[in-house]
Write a structure and sequence with these properties.
Radius of gyration: 21 Å
CATH superfamily of the largest domain: Aminoglycoside phosphotransferase (APH), C-terminal lobe
Order of helices and strands: EEHEEEHEEHHHHHEEEEHHHHH
Number of domains: 2
Number of strands: 11
CATH architecture of the largest domain: Alpha-Beta Complex
CATH topology of the largest domain: Aminoglycoside 3'-phosphotransferase, Chain: A, domain 2
Shape: globular
Largest sheet: 5 strands, antiparallel
Distance between the termini: 39 Å
């Protein structure tokens, strides 16, 4: 094996030998742009003159030291197997396009994966005219509907994604995450009376969320977590999947902080999803209300998360997407007729939701 196959202190050699054998390989290792997770990714590509059998290019996932821990995991359920592996197996068995796991070396903090290329769904959108977006999003909606249908009715013994749930405590904590980081960290701590009033509003919102019908939720089905591979759209970053409010993934896609969708397109795609699920048209009004209820919680959470990532993870890359998150939250609150909550947040965060700029980084 070629020397120097080190991924920030993790030796890829043992995993690579399991895939390619022990003969020396002429190859390059390139670190790929990361996200907000504790995992990192590298492309291992054989040189043109390399004679080894096996894929010419793969992606190595370097795992953190405590690979079984997720700071966004649901509840206190510490899995015995890497969630990425278990959920990948669950989805693959149900015909959902996910990356193939070529080598599992969890003990060595390495997974070797199928290389899906570099073009995300977001990249395709960015280089396409807005007139093409309904059709592009339609493909993502249809895939989502197929994934949800394939995972419907799963039993707890069938995998982690069916055992874990979006419990009330987690949903409520995520709203506090916004209050702490997306609001107070940018201004100042709320006065006790204002904090109590906001807590009551967030408690009521959480009560509505936990009363909604539930189903399989990828938990982050958005433009950066779909890849345009040679075999079509492929779903990635699914390791935090659980049982959650039925519109949750659709909210992640259509209220994507990295993409600015107008209300007309959102509503037409909500209707497309309902049709793709084979539900009667009579389901649409109730489902749409559930969609916007989930959107309030999800987008406030995202806004807080982006500030947290800057101040705690020391990564400012997500701050530019804070304003779009709160715009979507405001749109959802207006659709629901919750003007009082808009006014309450705006008193503490002037400009909420439509006139907030990018928060200043503390890096």
């Amino acid at each position: 094996m070629q020397p120097g196959m080190d991924a920030d202190g993790v030796d890829l050699g043992p995993a690579l030998r399991r895939l390619y054998g022990s003969a020396p390989l002429a190859a390059t290792l390139t670190k790929l742009k990361g996200d907000a997770s504790s995992r990192s990714y590298y492309r291992f590509a054989l040189n043109q003159n390399a004679s080894a059998s096996g894929p010419r290019s793969i992606v190595a996932m370097r795992l953190p030291e405590d690979a079984l821990h997720s700071d966004e995991a649901a509840g206190n359920d510490r899995p015995s197997e890497l969630p990425f592996i278990e959920v990948q197996r669950t989805l693959a068995a149900r015909g959902v396009p996910v990356p193939e796991i070529l080598v599992d070396d969890t003990a060595g903090r390495v997974l070797l994966l199928e290389d899906l290329g570099d073009e995300t769904f977001g990249d395709r959108l960015a280089r396409s005219p807005r007139s093409a977006w309904p059709e592009l999003y339609g493909q993502a909606i249809d895939l989502l509907a197929r994934m949800h249908a394939a995972c419907e009715g799963g039993l707890p013994e069938q995998g982690l994604a069916f055992r874990r749930r979006f419990e009330r405590e987690l949903l409520r904590w995520e709203l506090d995450h916004f209050r702490e980081w997306g609001l107070e960290a940018l201004t100042s701590a709320l006065a006790p009376a204002d904090r109590a009033a906001l807590d009551l509003a967030f408690d009521a919102l959480t009560d509505e969320l936990v009363a909604l019908p539930t189903g399989f939720a990828h938990r982050d089905y958005q433009s950066r977590n779909l890849m345009w591979a040679a075999r079509g759209l492929v779903v990635i970053d699914f390791q935090d999947a659980l049982q959650g409010p039925r519109p949750y993934d659709l909210v992640a896609l259509l209220c994507d902080s990295y993409m600015a969708l107008d209300l007309e397109l959102q509503r037409s795609l909500i209707e497309r999803y309902v049709h793709a699920r084979g539900w009667p048209a009579s389901e649409l009004p109730g489902f749409e209300r559930a969609f916007w209820t989930v959107a309030v919680q999800r987008k406030l959470k995202d806004a807080g998360r982006f500030v947290f990532i800057d101040r705690v993870r020391r990564n400012p890359d997500f701050l530019p997407h804070y304003p779009q998150s709160v715009v979507y939250a405001g749109r959802a609150l207006r659709w629901l007729g919750r003007e009082e909550l808009i006014e309450r947040i705006a008193r503490a965060l002037p400009g909420f939701p439509d006139a907030l700029g990018v928060p200043r980084s503390h890096i």
